[in-house]
Amino acid sequence: MSQSSPTGSFDVASLVEDVNLRRVGQYALVVFFLGFFLVPLETGIMTAIKTNESVARSLPFAPPASEGFTLGNIQFALEQLSGSFFNSLVMSIPATIGSVLFGSMAAYGLTMVNWRAQMGVLMLFVVGVFVPYQAVLVPLARFWNNIFPLARMIEPMVASIPFFQGYHADLVPLVITHIAYGIPICTILFRSYYQSLPNSLVEAGKIDGASITKIYRRIILPISKPMFGVVFIYQFTQIYNEFLFAFTLVTGSDAPAAPVTLVLPAIGASTSGIDFGIRMSAAFLAAVPTLILYVAFAEQFAKGLRTEA
Amino acid sequence: MATHDNTEHVSDAPDEAVGWESKLQYFLNSDFVRSAPYWGIPFVLMSIAVYGGIGYNFAISFTDYEGLGTPDYSALDLEMYAQALSSDAFIAAAQNNLVLLVGFTTICLVLGLFLAILLDHGIRFSEKFQTVYLLPMSLSFVVTAQLWLWMFNVESGILNLVVTTLGFNPVDWLGNPSIALGAVIFALIWQFSGYTMVVYLAGLQSIPDDQFEAARVDGASITRTYLRIIVPQLKEASVSAAVVLMVFALKAFTFLYALVGRYRPPNGTDILATLMVRRAFKFGEWAYSAAIATMLLVMALGVIGPYLYYQYKQGSL
């Protein structure tokens, strides 16, 4: 940044020094914030692999000394969480696929094909992104518990599927709920992508006599693969991390169908307080699926967030 | 939908030379009808869930429903709203919510902008740093609440370690009602400032480099260039990030619940969202909590309405 300035006969040495100082300061700040964002995570991991005694005696962020090291906490937390991991995945995967597909379809119908009053429909989708879920919790609880108790109706059917128990039926209303409330954001994400595509793609298809369905399947779906990646990662993270719907529909942390996020705030707590070794282990195990996705696809995740704004 | 529209066309038919059969045919082949299954199915599902839910919630808020039997819609009144607006718990929660909304949004925007500018120019591996700064956003609030619960721990948390090293007395971060909300805001800023940074970076990257060149040729310092030339162009990024943050501040429930694992968050941090859920699911006061939820929705609409209008006027929707 400095080399091309027309410094002429100025004191070049002092300029270099100034620039270096600035650069050093800049990097120092970058590293400071690296610490700011990582310290809570690092402390958590260190606490997870320490014995209780070591947690009490050593500094929270320090790695455990040899006799203070244990995998017992992680093992215990894994046993406690394994069932709810399964619940979380059974809930998140179909819910993500459903909302992503519906979002892509809706965005296609609202972008690539022109008709009047599109804007009004689109507005309803956009508002749907921002609606606080508190405004629908009471209706949701009433609908799935009293008006249409789907979980109770399909319980025997779910119990007959291998690897599943009757209580997994509780996850079905949750999946449908997640799909329905995930549609707006998926639609908006896909729409921004479809808008960036050249209009000529669809026009060419139309001139060739392709139907709307054919254009979608043959032209739009194949070229939106990267966007499917972005939306899928974004939406999976959202649904896996979500708490409020599960809290409303599955209720307690001791319910057998509870996903991970519901179980976590109750783990390692007893009358004598919270066992932080176990709590931190559980927190990390709960975060593992989204962390893996994030480390592998950070750019896609960032793109999802950017488009949302 | 199709039948409704085709009757309209039938009545139009005499004005035109074309017969109604071919008009109907034309209509059925139109892009509107043929694209309808694509947007129509998701739209119906989403509308039932979002707008059906809001309508039902609105209806319940006018009753006195407390969970037994079915809501009685024969005597509708605004009693629940009046009751909420005159209750101390509601007022306190609304005040906390306002503090959270303003404090959290402002600091997140400022810090995010600072981080974006910090990484925007001349930093090696800046994408790696971005990835770390954004990492907390990929975590569930339930997880981050556990991490911060440990950070805030009175005896062995890191924050108190810092405080006592500096020679002060340990602070009960979550137990002291006048500090707790600030502590929660701090933790949420930790989680969200990476998000604002990403939004600002996208804005910064859309500004052509020759503006920096021109400013440098004119002899403007880097600080001046950013303050006078670059930051004013980030208005759009600021507005959209602010909207997302404010709406989040209104509905933030999970973090507060997960901190303590019970309906009542730490003293001094009760906000409308936690009050609403507690009233509904702990005490079964469905109508009362529906009224709070409606007011929460109105506030959220108060934030997003102007934003969408502005976006629509700009033609950027």
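The two ends of chain A are 31 Å apart (CA to CA).
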